Amino acid sequence: MLILKLAVEILILWVCYILYMAILVHRRGPLGGIFFYPKCVQDRTVELGCGGGRNAGALLKRWPDAKLTAVDYSALSVEKTKAYNREQIAAGRCTVLQGDVKSLPLADESFDLATAFETVYFWPGLTACFTEVCRVLRPGGTFLICNESDGTDETGLKFEKIIDGMKCHTVEELSAALKAAGFSGVTVDHFANKPWITVLARK
Ligand SMILES: C[S@@+](CC[C@H](N)C(=O)[O-])C[C@H]1O[C@@H](n2cnc3c(N)ncnc32)[C@H](O)[C@@H]1O
Questions:
Q1: From ligand 1's centre to the CA of 49, what distance in Å?
Q2: Which of 88, 135, 164, 175 has the highest CB neighbour count under 10 A?
Q3: Whose CA is nearest to atom 14 of ligand 1?
Q4: Pairwise CA distance, residues 63 & 45, whole Å
């Protein structure tokens, strides 16, 4: 009887955990993907194509001991990221740089984790840019890509036609470019019923 009660309690806890994760992903969009990878080392994170800096802020909140460098080639994005993360910058945990992913202003092997949320669509030459990401990661470091388009969905393909230079890559294209750039152990999670993808690669 006691064992049965214990089993039911464990089952309830497990269901609550799954529901919690589902709500997290639903609320946070692709950034939710990162919550499924608590084991990747993130002490020194570089957030590429950081836009307004909200994901940088969420990562700093998620990992309070980590330091993060945010990079974007747009001066406006750099300013917005600085404003959004001003407290973390003052605390010495966040640095924001203007730079292009095709030639990052960062030292070799200086990061544990590189993240790219909704940005690789715009990168000029996937393999060359991924090679640059590989350069700044330490051996064993992780590269995480989150996209809301898997390169086959109607919305993504519609945006491709409207936005000059945008390309919604398929999982196969991303995996091939990552491998050509020197990454291994590429894994892809595809969100059920949505074209959201999380791609993880190891250096
Ligand atoms: C759709 S926004 C996504 C912003 C942010 N990552 C997010 O999820 O909210 C794409 C961002 O990537 C940046 N970006 C595009 N190409 C880039 C490049 N070659 N180097 C650096 N940043 C780039 C853009 O300036 C823009 O801020």
A1: 3
A2: 88
A3: 49
A4: 10
Between the CA of 142 and the centroid of ligand 1 the distance, in Å, is 19
What spacing in Å lies between the alpha carbon of 24 and ligand 1's midpoint?
23
Any residues with CB less than 8 A from the CB of 194 and at least 6 apart, and which? 148
Ligand 1 atom 25, closest CA: 74
Please enumerate in sequence order all residues whose Cβ is within 8 A of that of 115, keeping only pairs 6 or more positions apart, or say none. Answer: 34, 45, 46, 47, 48, 55, 59, 143, 144, 145, 146
Nearest atom (ligand 1) to Cα of 116: 6
Domain spans of the chain?
Answer: 2-202
Q: What are the residues facing 117 on neighbouring strands?
A: 146
Of 103, 102, 144, 105, nearest in space to 123 by CA: 102
pLDDT in tens, the chain (203 residues): 766 776 667 565 665 454 455 444 444 444 555 555 556 678 999 999 999 999 999 999 988 999 999 999 999 999 999 999 999 999 999 999 999 999 999 999 999 999 999 999 999 999 999 999 999 999 999 999 999 999 998 999 899 999 998 999 999 999 999 999 999 989 888 877 889 899 999 99
How far apart CA 172 and CA 156 sit, in angstroms, is 16
**Which residues have CB under 6 Å of ligand 1?**
49-51, 54-55, 72-74, 77, 100-102, 117-119, 122-124
